[in-house]
């Protein structure tokens, strides 16, 4: 099924370009015109009355020019269309696949003239809901894990961040994607990566900022490191626990996105899944915080001995 997606993507791109009848003819908004397409251009792109409405604005201190698009203009970016399947985990955590057809976010940013100094990308819905990714989080390699349900990373495929105008939750077959509002979709960095919360629905703006995002606070531990009674449970803590994942190791190695997850569920869903780490023998817990919108925390090291 996953092998077919490449072919389907290809056919989609060909199909869309035939439908819109504009192969090689870019209809992106002229940045010089204050981000607004000339009326005649909008009408031409729209094809029918009413669909020339601006659906997306790319703006902010991190781009050279504010850029606005109507849906037809997005669909006519034939060199930047993609149809993909995405593996996801939400805050419950429930594992699901999503499919989507849309335009590459990287291309939208490039067309707005993203600056070297750009640091964060905030995607905001018409209702104000938003998600921020650091530039690194958007640019780094992200994957679809086709064997996510089995907990295996086997067959991981790199997938791009897109703004999808056709999408479907709970499907892995691209033909199931149906028309809707613009939705942000992007790959997972690791199999516990909660991407769903950042799959902003009804996207209206992408704001690129040069402001540094900062770093997540380090993990805290209770009781404090040192000598403890055998069987003591170490509780890890973080002020933004429901917005981040704490990854940890017990073998002295540096934790990363592939390490054990301390908080697989958000506290408001299944708090019982967040279990203290038992100290049955001398152990060193190393923990890192990874979450959207800020850089990874420093690694915290907690060393325990048993009495
Ligand atoms: N505009 C908007 N997008 C949103 C949200 C929202 O409240 N508003 N919720 C997010 C969260 S927390 C999740 S888990 C998913 C839920 O997506 P679904 O409704 O398709 O299951 O959408 C994300 N995108
Ligand atoms: Mo969620």
Structure commentary:
InterPro entries: Fn3_assoc_repeat, OxRdtase_Mopterin-bd_dom, OxRdtase_Mopterin-bd_sf. This is Chitobiase/beta-hexosaminidase C-terminal domain-containing protein. The chain has about 300 residues and is α+β, with helices and mostly antiparallel strands. It folds into 2 domains: about 1-210, Sulfite Oxidase, Chain A, domain 2 (Alpha-Beta Complex); about 220-305, Immunoglobulin-like (Sandwich). Helix content is about 15%, strand content about 35%. It has helices at about 1-20, 40-45, 70-75, 105-110, 135-140; strands at about 55-60, 65-70, 80-90, 95-105, 120-125, 130-135, 145, 155-160, 160-170, 180-185, 205-210, 220, 225-230, 230-235, 245-250, 260, 275-280, 285-290, 300-305. Mean pLDDT is about 85; it is low at about 1-5 and about 5-50. The chain binds the ligand Nc1nc2c(c(=O)[nH]1)N[C@H]1C(S)=C(S)[C@@H](COP(=O)(O)O)O[C@H]1N2 and molybdenum atom (MO).
What labels would you give this structure?
single chain; 2 domains; Sulfite Oxidase, Chain A, domain 2; 307 residues; Immunoglobulin-like; alpha+beta; disordered N terminus; binds the ligand Nc1nc2c(c(=O)[nH]1)N[C@H]1C(S)=C(S)[C@@H](COP(=O)(O)O)O[C@H]1N2; binds molybdenum atom
Could you give a short description of this structure?
The chain is α+β, with helices and mostly antiparallel strands and 307 residues long. It has five helices and 19 strands.
């Amino acid at each position: 099924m996953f092998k077919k997606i490449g072919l389907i993507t290809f056919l989609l791109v060909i199909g869309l370009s035939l439908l819109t009848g504009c192969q090689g003819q870019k209809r992106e908004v002229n940045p010089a015109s204050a981000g607004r397409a000339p009326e005649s251009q909008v009408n031409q792109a729209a094809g029918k009355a009413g669909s020339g409405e601006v659906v997306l604005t790319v703006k902010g201190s991190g781009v050279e020019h504010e850029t606005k698009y109507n849906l037809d203009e997005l669909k006519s970016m034939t060199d930047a269309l993609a149809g993909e399947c995405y593996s996801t985990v939400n805050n419950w955590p429930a594992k699901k696949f999503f499919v989507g057809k849309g335009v590459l976010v990287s291309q939208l940013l490039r067309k707005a003239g993203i600056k070297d100094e750009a640091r964060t990308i905030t995607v905001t819905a018409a209702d104000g809901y938003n998600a921020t990714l650091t530039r690194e989080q958007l640019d780094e390699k992200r994957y679809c894990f086709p064997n996510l349900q089995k907990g295996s990373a086997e067959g991981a495929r790199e997938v791009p961040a897109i703004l999808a105008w056709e999408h479907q939750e709970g499907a892995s077959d691209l033909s199931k994607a149906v028309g809707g509002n613009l939705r942000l979709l992007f790959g997972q960095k690791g199999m516990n990566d909660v991407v769903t919360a950042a799959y902003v629905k009804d996207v209206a703006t992408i704001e690129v900022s040069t402001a540094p995002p900062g770093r997540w606070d380090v993990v805290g531990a209770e009781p404090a490191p040192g000598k403890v009674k055998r069987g003591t449970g170490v509780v890890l803590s973080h002020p933004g626990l429901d917005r981040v994942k704490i990854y940890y190791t017990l073998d002295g190695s540096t934790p990363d996105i592939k390490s054990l997850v301390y908080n697989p569920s958000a506290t408001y869903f299944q708090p019982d899944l967040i279990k203290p780490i038992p100290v049955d023998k001398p152990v060193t817990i190393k923990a890192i915080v990874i979450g959207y919108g800020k850089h990874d925390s420093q690694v915290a090291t907690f060393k325990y001995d048993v009495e």
